[in-house]
Design goal:
15 strands; globular; alpha/beta; 10 helices
Length: 357
C-alpha cells in the first residue's frame, strides 16, 4: 500500500503522516499490513515520549505492525566532519526499527562494506536513546526512475544510462526499504513473529562491521554502537532465524526448532552474525539473550530506554560532538553522492515541515 504524504519535491506535513499511520492501524486487518516503511523525518525538537510522530509509531507497533524508519543523513556537518546525535524523528522512537546506511562499495562481496559517512549517528537528541538499530546498504542504490520528477530533473547525472527507467540514489531512505523487504520475507516465513521479536532477530543476525573498520578512527574510539547499531543487515540469516522460532510455545519449553544461524555465505564469503542484541540499556549476547525471552515475545515496547553508557560497550559521554550538534536549525540533505554538496533546507515552519531522507 503506497500512502502519499509528501509532495512532488519531497516535502510535506506531520499531519499527513499521522493520518497515514492511523489509516494503517485502522486497515491493518483488511489489507494484511504487517510492515510500514518511513523513509522520511524531521529534526528532533522534543522527547520521543511526547512527539506526535513517535506516539503514532508506538501505536502502530502496539497494533502489531513493524515500523521501519530511516535514521537520517546528518552524520556529518557542512565541513565534512562526523557528528553525533543526528537521528531524525520518528527514528528516535524506541519502538521504531531505525536503519542507518552502509556502503557496499558497489561490490557483491561483503568484505569491503563500510558505514556511510552521512548516515546519522546516535544518541538521539533529548532522550539519548541508542540508535540506529542496524544499518543496511544505502549508497548508490539503483531503483526505478520517475521520469520528469523533481529529482530526475534536478540530478540528471543520477540516471542509469544503459537502462532508461532506472535511477541511482544514496541515503538512509534507500537503506530502510531493504530492511522492510527483509521483514516481509521473515513474516512470510513465520507469520507468528511480533515486532519485538523481528527486531531482535535482525540485530542477532546482523554483521558486526567493526573488524572490517579496525583502522577507522571513528569506530576505533568505541563509537560503533552509535554508528552501526548491531551491524549490517544479513537477510539470509534473518529469514533462516525466523524459520526456527516458535513464539507460541509455553514458558519452559524450547522456542527453537533448530539452532539459530551463526553465519551466512554471501558473495562467496562467510558473513558472521553478531549474535548480540540491545535490550533496554544492556548489550546482550550468547546465553544472556535467553534470559529476556519473555520480554522479546511481549507486546510491550522494550527497546532504547537509554544510551548504552558505562558498560564497556560504548565509552564516554564525550563521544557526542557538542561543538557541532546535528540537531541544529537545519534539515540537511547534503552529500556529494546524494543531493549535491549545498542542498540544505531550513525548518522555518516550526518543525512541521518534513523532508525525505
Amino acid at each position: 500500500m503506497a500512502l502519499k504524504v509528501l509532495d512532488s519535491t519531497g516535502a510535506g506535513y506531520v499531519s499527513n503522516v499521522l493520518s497515514a499511520l492511523d489509516w494503517c492501524v485502522q486497515n491493518k486487518n483488511t489489507y494484511g499490513i504487517r510492515v510500514i516503511n518511513m523513509s522520511l523525518g524531521h529534526a528532533t525538537v522534543e522527547s520521543s515520549a511526547t512527539d506526535p510522530l513517535c506516539a503514532a509509531v508506538r501505536q502502530c507497533v502496539q497494533a502489531g505492525i513493524v515500523v521501519v524508519c530511516s535514521a537520517g543523513n546528518k552524520g556529518k556537518n557542512t565541513a565534512g566532519n562526523l557528528v553525533y546525535g543526528g537521528i531524525s524523528t520518528p527514528g528516535n522512537e524506541p519502538a521504531a526499527l531505525t536503519v542507518g546506511a552502509s556502503n557496499t562499495v558497489e561490490t557483491i562481496a561483503r568484505g569491503d562494506d563500510l558505514i556511510c559517512s552521512y548516515s546519522s549517528r546516535g544518541p538521539t537528541a533529548v532522550n539519548l536513546h541508542s540508535k540506529p538499530d542496524l544499518v543496511a546498504p544505502g549508497n548508490k542504490i539503483v531503483s526505478l526512475r520517475s521520469v520528469g520528477s523533481h529529482l530526475d530533473t534536478l540530478y540528471p547525472t543520477n540516471r542509469v544510462t544503459e537502462y532508461s527507467n532506472y535511477y541511482t540514489l544514496s541515503g538512509t531512505s534507500m537503506a530502510a526499504p531493504q530492511v522492510a523487504g527483509t521483514l516481509a520475507l521473515m513474516l512470510q516465513a513465520n507469520p507468528q513473529l511480533i515486532p519485538n521479536m523481528v527486531k531482535a532477530v535482525l540485530q542477532y543476525t546482523a554483521e558486526d562491521l567493526r573488524p572490517k573498520n579496525s583502522l577507522n578512527i571513528e569506530l576505533s574510539k568505541g563509537l560503533k554502537l552509535l554508528t552501526q547499531g548491531a551491524g549490517n543487515l544479513n537477510t539470509i540469516a534473518a529469514v533462516q532465524a525466523a524459520q526456527v522460532i516458535n513464539p507460541l510455545v509455553p514458558v519452559g519449553q524450547s522456542w527453537l526448532s533448530a539452532p539459530l544461524p551463526v553465519s551466512s555465505v554471501i558473495g562467496g564469503g562467510v558473513v558472521l552474525c553478531s549474535q548480540q542484541l540491545f535490550h533496554r540499556d544492556r548489550r546482550m549476547s550468547g546465553a544472556n539473550i535467553l534470559a529476556v525471552r519473555q520480554a522479546l515475545f511481549s507486546a510491550t515496547v522494550l527497546w532504547g530506554d537509554t544510551v548504552l553508557w558505562g558498560d564497556g560497550t560504548v565509552s564516554e559521554n564525550n563521544e557526542v560532538d557538542t561543538d557541532a550538534p546535528a540537531w541544529s536549525s537545519q534539515v540537511l540533505w547534503g552529500d556529494n553522492v546524494l543531493w549535491g554538496d549545498s542542498a540544505t533546507y531550513g525548518d522555518s515552519l516550526q518543525g512541521n515541515l518534513l523532508f525525505g531522507d
